[in-house]
Design goal:
With 317 residues, the protein is mainly alpha-helical. It contains 13 helices and two strands; from the N terminus they run H-H-H-H-E-E-H-H-H-H-H-H-H-H-H. A hairpin with a 4-residue loop joins strand 1 and strand 2. Helix 6 packs across helix 8, helix 7 packs parallel to helix 11 and helix 8 packs antiparallel against helix 11.
Length: 317
């Protein structure tokens, strides 16, 4: 397993390097130039000043040379400065990354804790009323756009009822822990709803498939209880494809976090990337997108490692 894990880490590093080249090129295609925008916002800058700034930032060099210079600095931890925040990029990314990990972590755990039992429950009662109710709820959850759900939650619980704040963070610097929790409730509910619907559908389908397998019929014929058949036999085998779905859906959850954070004004990675792109902050947008890519790659690596724990028959060569 150690050799497999080392090889997968190496593959992840290579893929991240390739993605950095692709993302760097896409960021370079963004309309507008940071120096041109700076000149437009400051009429005191002369064309000579603009040319000197472009030379200092290597914006007048070919694309490949600019990328290699950026990559060389990135390897030693220098990702440049954020134009919007006037700070090193890592100093800006750090707090936003922590906020997103909190939001995504809570939402991810809640989605799995709710979706997995719901999927198993629906599968064991296929074509009965509980199954129809779960299917109806999951289809509704899949069909609702994330931004519309966020707006609905704000209108109902923040505007009409006034129970919860509409923003994702307290405005006061000395806010209590309870205030932070109250501000997190609506963003967490909005993001959790995205995961519950899909995970429940997949869990239901996997369990139905496993409950039809020969080994389940054999277990029943040997007198294993219904609970034992479901949880000791079918459930563990149904988790293997479910782990793949969860890992692949991690990127969808991150993109949903971008919409949720923007709607609730939550200072996470999604909102930071959105603001950086809209403000032509090349360095910040590039590093933010690379961190998002890294999170997705690590989620897939964790899924690969979980297969052997769920099914001892899987061997890592």
């Amino acid at each position: 397993m150690t050799a497999f894990f080392t090889r997968r880490l190496l593959e992840t590093a290579i893929l991240l390097a390739v993605m950095s080249f692709v993302v760097y090129g896409l960021i370079g295609l963004m309309p507008g130039d940071p120096i041109d925008i700076l000149v437009m916002s400051n009429p005191n800058l002369t064309p000579e000043d603009a040319a000197r700034l472009k030379a200092a930032l290597k914006l007048d060099e070919p694309f490949v040379e600019r990328y290699l210079a950026w990559a060389g600095n990135a390897v030693v931890g220098d990702f440049g400065y954020s134009r919007l925040h006037a700070q090193p990029v890592l100093a800006v990314v750090g707090p936003h990354l922590v906020n997103t990990l909190w939001l995504m972590g809570i939402s991810f755990v809640l989605a799995i804790v709710i979706a997995v039992p719901a999927g198993v429950y629906a599968a064991t009662r296929q074509y009965r009323l509980p199954d129809y109710l779960v299917n109806f709820a999951t289809f509704a959850g899949i069909s609702i756009p994330p931004f519309w759900l966020a707006l609905l939650l704000i209108m109902v619980f923040a505007v009409w009822l006034g129970w919860l704040p509409a923003g994702g963070v307290p405005t006061s610097a000395d806010a209590s822990l309870w205030e932070h929790i109250r501000h997190l409730i609506l963003p967490v509910v909005s993001l959790t709803a995205l995961g519950i619907a899909g995970f429940t559908r997949y869990m239901r389908a996997d369990m139905i498939e496993q409950l039809r397998m020969d080994y389940v019929r054999t277990a029943r014929a040997k007198g294993v209880s219904a609970r034992g058949v479901v949880w000791r036999h079918a459930f563990r085998n149904a988790l293997i494809p479910m782990v793949t779905v969860i890992a692949l859906d991690f990127g969808t959850l991150f993109s949903g976090a971008l919409i949720t954070e923007t709607m609730f004004g939550y200072p996470g990675m999604g909102k930071m990337i959105y603001d950086a792109i809209m403000g032509n902050d090349y360095n910040l947008a590039l590093v933010g997108l690379l961190f998002a890519t890294l999170l997705i790659l690590l989620a897939n690596l964790a899924a690969d490692m979980a297969y052997g724990w769920l099914d001892p028959r899987i061997k890592y060569q």
